[in-house]
UniProtKB/TrEMBL annotation:
It comes from the Bacteria. GO terms for biological process: proteolysis. Residues 1-25 form the signal peptide. Gene3D superfamilies: alpha/beta hydrolase, Prolyl oligopeptidase, N-terminal domain. This is S9 family peptidase. Keywords: Hydrolase, Protease, Serine protease, Signal. Residues 44-431 form the Peptidase S9A N-terminal domain. It comes from Gluconacetobacter aggeris. Pfam families: Peptidase_S9, Peptidase_S9_N.
């Protein structure tokens, strides 16, 4: 589950078509649930087509639609976007999409030219040309490359953006697929290079060699058997190295390398979404490592594993508080070293390892900071805060294993994205690129306020508005949050939201509710399983605080969320239907009684709970938006969107919810994209269409004020 979130645009127009148009539900009945659950079933796709056509007729007919669409398209295809860099083989690589390359090109340039702002790009892989030549709907999902030379690579290609991929061996610096190289056909799969001619592979193996059983996929739909595959060897001859259990989330190989030549190959067994067991692959098999169960592994430095502990842990008399970053000797000969422990209002957000140190981003009251840590002569660690702008979000784009360099992205709600080059060797950081403004921020201000939730906990939220905003409840307001999986909602620059919402005078609010990582593991833990009602109460508390401050009223208040945020929207829609004037429910979980049997849902029992546990079952039944829908309740008309090819959450949640609304006679708008996976649409024109549909839908919040 990854946070994505935020987008839109709305401009002043003299039309009020949606405000005056009668809301109508679909004219025909939906197929039964079993039919809608067949993702590519004829009856289900026929119903999807009917809902799409109805939504298009209602929204694309609005004169504003084309303006919104073209504006988003220009943003997505703007040649002045910062090309996001990756260190690879001593060069800088970038994946780029534009009008001429909607599927994208993978290209490289020299580091010195990139840093100087004058890259000379050489295309190494043209995905559009590959898709045309092979008549496939290829989507580039990245590359896994052999250290230390970063060659060869395994290119990951998916059909239409789903999680399952096809892996093909590729030489990145010569730009060609390797003749008779490794080719791993379509599956959810993970690989690690053991050496140039050997892979460790976790995938759906089907029937094993010599009659050994098993499709080797967990109940969540991910691999749990790792095998060793030699060059030229048939898949069914690969020899098993390790297997987990069918109730695990997944089992996957991991290859790590540092700048000193140390290489480790590990196998990660994800027992739950948050608990891992790591084993070291040795000449004699595998050896379990003594690491905290709840942790995030970031890399290898000077032979030590760098990781974040997401629980209190003790090793050799060293007490490690939850949320700390530590260095661990995989052989256990040297004591654990503590790099950083966050304060009460701090949290470690991202961590990456360079050749000389560790780069991390830290949230302090949800405001981003950059830090570098490097070993000192006394055997400890020395930390330096990078000189970056304040009140920003800071993200690590990539770190170089061959040097101390790392690229950081820095932005704020009103500050366009900047690319910084940091160095863990000397603690320096300098801005090397920045975007020009992509919307008019004159007269806009950013504030941070705090609401009080149902149990007295103070919940922060960011609010972006005009400096002369009236406190009379008349302001169209868009509120968003995520609230799950220890993922944080930060003050990022969003030109689509800027152009299509803020430019028209809308107020934009990002809530830092529990369940996220804004204040570390404890903030997440407070919103996990039955504690998730805190998440829902926090969000409603922010809404009520906005109303109490006379910023908005329910008729002018819209909310939006995707994925886990889509579940949040579904719950708020059913628990507080009177609080919202518009609700956007994106690629959501909505059937919490059956989520464990849908797509990858079984992997999230550690976040939501399980129907197999009686007390958790009671809670899941109570909050499930699908179950909570009732006749006779006045609900706002929602906009629901999903993707047919989403093999992570799947489209069935959204279909069943919309069909239930249809049966109750509740108006709704529904859009199911037939391209793209869980992360959404896969090219600029598809993104533009979905965002423009949202923008027209949200226009009613504006129209009610005119």
């Amino acid at each position: 589950m990854l946070p994505a979130m935020r987008s839109f645009r709305i401009i002043i127009a003299g039309f009020a078509m949606l405000a005056t148009m009668p809301a109508v539900a679909s004219s025909s009945s939906a197929p039964p649930p079993d039919a809608l659950s067949e993702v590519r079933g004829k009856a289900a796709l026929s119903w999807v087509d009917e809902q799409n056509r109805r939504t298009f007729a209602g929204l694309e007919a609005d004169p504003r639609y084309r303006v919104f669409h073209d504006s988003v398209l220009r943003i997505r295809q703007d040649a002045h976007r910062i090309p996001m860099p990756t260190f690879l083989g001593g060069e800088i690589f970038n994946f780029w999409q534009d009008a001429a390359h909607p599927r994208g090109i993978w290209r490289e340039t020299a580091p010195e030219r990139f840093v100087a702002g004058h890259p000379l790009w050489t295309t190494r892989l043209d995905v559009d040309e590959l898709a045309r030549r092979e008549h496939r709907n290829w989507v580039f999902q990245g590359a896994d490359c052999l250290a230390p030379d970063d060659s060869p690579c395994l290119i990951q290609l998916s059909e239409g953006g789903e999680d399952a991929t096809t892996l093909r061996e590729f030489a990145p610096l010569s730009g060609g697929f390797t003749p008779d190289g490794f080719l791993l056909p379509h599956s959810k799969q993970t690989v690690a290079w053991e050496d140039r001619d050997t892979l460790l592979v976790a995938r759906d193996w089907g029937d094993g060699p010599r009659g050994v059983s098993g499709g080797a996929m967990t109940r969540a739909g991910y691999p749990f058997v790792v095998r060793r595959l030699h060059r030229g060897q048939a898949l069914d001859s690969a020899v098993e190295v390790m297997r987990g259990q069918r109730d695990d989330v997944l089992v996957a190989p991991v290859a790590l390398a540092d700048g000193e030549g140390h290489r480790l190959v590990l196998i990660r067994r994800a027992v739950t979404f948050f608990e891992d067991r790591y084993s070291l692959v040795t000449d004699g098999g595998t050896r379990a490592l003594d690491l905290p169960a709840r942790m995030d592994l970031h890399g290898l430095l000077a032979g030590r594993l760098i990781l974040s502990a997401n629980q209190d842990w003790q090793s050799g008399g060293v007490k490690i508080p939850a949320g700390s970053v530590i260095a661990v000797d995989p052989d256990g000969r040297m004591p654990v070293q503590l790099l950083f422990t966050p304060g009460a209002r701090q949290a470690v957000d991202e961590v990456a390892v360079t050749g000389t140190g560790v780069v991390m981003t830290v949230l302090d009251s949800v405001r981003g900071q950059g830090w570098v840590y490097r070993p000192d002569a006394a055997g400890g660690w020395h930390g330096t805060r990078l000189k970056l702008p304040d009140m920003m979000s800071v993200h690590i784009m990539d770190a170089d294993r061959r040097s101390g360099r790392a690229f950081l992205s820095v932005s704020g709600f009103l500050t366009p994205q900047q690319l910084w080059l940091a160095d863990s060797t000397d603690g320096s950081a300098r801005k090397i690129m920045e975007l020009p403004p992509q919307f008019d921020s004159a007269g806009l201000v950013v504030g941070q306020e705090w609401a009080v939730s149902s149990d007295g906990t103070r919940i922060p939220y960011f609010i972006v508005h005009r400096a002369d905003m009236r406190s009379d409840g008349s302001n169209p307001t868009l509120l968003t949050a995520y609230g799950g999986f220890q993922l944080s909602s930060l003050p990022d620059y969003d030109p689509v939201a800027g152009r299509l919402w803020l430019d028209r005078g809308g107020v934009y609010v990002v809530a830092n509710i529990r369940g996220g990582g804004e204040f570390g593991p404890a903030w997440h833990e407070a919103g996990r399983m039955a504690g998730r009602q805190h998440v829902f109460d926090d969000f409603a508390a922010v809404a009520r605080d906005l109303i109490a401050r006379k910023i908005t009223v329910p008729a002018h208040l819209g909310i939006r969320g995707r994925s886990n945020g889509g579940l949040l929207m579904g719950v708020e829609f059913t628990q507080h239907p009177d609080l919202w004037g518009a609700v956007i429910v994106g690629v959501p979980l909505l059937d919490m009684e059956h989520f464990e049997t849908m797509a990858a849902g079984a992997s999230w029992a550690g976040e939501y709970g399980s129907m197999a546990v009686p007390e958790q079952r009671t809670f899941l039944e109570r909050i499930s938006p699908l179950r909570a829908l009732r006749p006779g309740v006045h609900y706002p008309e929602p906009f629901i969107f999903t993707s047919t090819l989403d093999d992570r959450v799947g489209p069935v949640h959204a279909r069943l919810f919309a069909a239930r609304l249809q049966a109750l006679g509740v108006p709704f708008l529904y859009y199911e994209d037939t391209e793209g996976g869980h992360s959404g649409t896969v090219n600029a024109s598809e993104v533009a269409r979905e965002r423009a549909l949202e923008a027209v839908y949200l226009s009613r919040l504006m129209d009610r004020g005119h």
